[in-house]
Amino acid sequence: MQSKSALARTSSPETWPSWPASTPQVGARTRVDLPHRAWLASPAPQDVATPGAEAELQGQIRAYIRAYLTSTCLDSSTLQRTFRISRRLLYRLFDDVGGVARYIREQRLDAAYARLIANPDCSITRLLYDLGFTSDRQFQRSFRARYGMSPLELKQRQGERS
Questions:
Q1: CA-closest candidate to residue 26, choices 67, 71, 66, 79
Q2: Cα angle vertex 65, ends 59, 68, to 5°?
Q3: What angle do CA 54, 59, 65 make, to 5 degrees?
Q4: Alpha carbon 148 to chain centroid distance?
Q5: What backbone phi and psi angles, to 5 degrees, belong to 30?
Q6: Res 61: pLDDT
Q7: First-to-last C-alpha distance (Å) of the chain
Q8: Which end of the chain is more exposed for a tag (fewer CB within 10 A), N or C?
Q9: If you write DSSP's letter for every residue of the chain in order, what string do you get?
């Protein structure tokens, strides 16, 4: 069984590999595979049965999600491989926020909202792809459900205030 400090050393943001310098281009976006292979070489957490260890693991997963939020490859299966945990444990860790997919989507939506507030002139299409959404329709629907308005309506409101 690993100690908490050993677990923190093996999966802290400082030890995450950096993105490759050159990656193949796909359309207008860059295709990047998450660096989960490097994480597979590190020892897996052996005992996460204690609430403290689960909270620490959840914090590390959330930090990883924030770091790779813009990747379209970021999903529950990537997190399972990266942290070498079961699907059941991953879903249990994020059960209080409606699941891991919902958590990722809401983090992306919050980032989109913040960017639209900061820069109402930005392109919505570029914004949604920059934040890892794969579909304009999915982004529009999710944004409206979360904020009660479309991204365009938010841009127009911000434009009126400027």
A1: 71
A2: 140
A3: 125
A4: 23
A5: -95, 130
A6: 97
A7: 56
A8: C
A9: ---HHHHHHHSSGGGSPPPPSS--EETTEE----THHHHHTSPPPS---SHHHHHHHHHHHHHHHHHTTT-TT-SHHHHHHHHT--HHHHHHHTGGGT-HHHHHHHHHHHHHHHHHHH-TTS-HHHHHHHTT---HHHHHHHHHHHHSS-HHHHHHHHHHH-
The answer to whether residue 2 scores a pLDDT higher than 90 is no
Q: Where are the domains of the chain?
A: 4-93, 103-161
Amino acid identity, position 139: F
CA 72 to chain centroid, in Å, comes to: 9
Q: Is the pTM of this model over 0.90?
A: no
Give me the CATH code for the 103-161 domain, please.
Answer: 1.10.10
For residue 4, is pLDDT > 50? no
